[in-house]
Amino acid sequence: MTKKKDDKQKHVSVVTKKSLQFFEEYINNPSPTGFEYPGQKLWLDYLKPYIDESFIDNYGTAVGVINPKAEYRVVIEAHADEISWFVNYITPEGLIYVIRNGGSDHQIAPSKRVNIHTDTGMVKAVFGWPAIHTRSGEKEEAPALKNIFLDCGCTSKDEVEALGIHVGCVITYEDEFMVLNDRYYVGRALDNRAGGFMIAEVARLLKENKQKLPFALYIVNSVQEEIGLRGAEMIADRIKPHVAIVTDVTHDTSTPMINKITQGDLACGKGPVVSYAPAVQTNLNKLLIKTAEKNDIPFQRQASSRSTGTDTDAFAYSNGGVPSALISLPLRYMHTTVEMIHKEDVDNVISLIYHALLNIEKNHDFKYNK
């Protein structure tokens, strides 16, 4: 029986078995904002066979460079940091109250297991919560920053401190990477270490396919995005790029309780998301769209009212204005421990960035009035 032309072709992943092993290790390794170094080391170790040189700046942003002697500089960028908590107050009874490090969601905290990072290693703890039996007849009190607390099995402040825990220790969830229904990658911190993984895969493909770029390519894994794009601000000033293509995640709006009228109509499995926003340079965005169409890469569109809320804004408004664009990866359940991304979307973001780079010529002119 011959195959019909309209039958859907089987998707062939660009992600290798070795790549996926790195991705799992990278996601499982904690990299909270301000404490990203262990994850950055993992990332650079994976990237080094595919680049010519690398460096880490004073705050931990990691950069790999291909063709570093070229004067024209192109950046592909993601951010490495994940949301977390800080120890803020230890009670006389040995319970711990917290504050956010980034946009941590207080509503998901109760009953979660965590790791408290100390100078002598990890200390296990849990977010406690009153049993349902003890709340009978009472007005339900929702989880809030003022009432969520950690229990590390101690009964006094002295006992807590003897474990090496002090105000300022950072706290991360311990949930780990998994594959769901052979279709989705699931884990914490896919926002946005999935981006770091994808730009590393672009570097791998360039190397393995023996592509010679006419410009210097900076593969940038920035820190401190979750608290205000700070790492991108610093590294943009240092590199002074001529072009920046940023990748981050965006919301899959096809799940319950999300208003498509305000959040847009986007879904996992339907391709990378190309953004329209003041920070997104029009002609660079057109290049991405033409690249997707030419290479049969499915894509979706998203509009942002004022800012993208991603490192795109930091690059765009640096150095007198850098032509910048955003390619987003649809994601379910952002800032939870069960973030979900579609395997085919990961492949297609990698492919879109890869082919876009091949369409950028040395000293490419992205002038607004072209």
Automatic annotation (TrEMBL):
Top-level lineage group: Bacteria
Keyword check for Metal-binding: yes
Keywords: Aminopeptidase, Hydrolase, Metal-binding, Protease
Presence of the UniProt keyword Transmembrane in the record: no
Family per similarity comment: Belongs to the peptidase M42 family.
Protein name (Swiss-Prot/TrEMBL): M20/M25/M40 family metallo-hydrolase
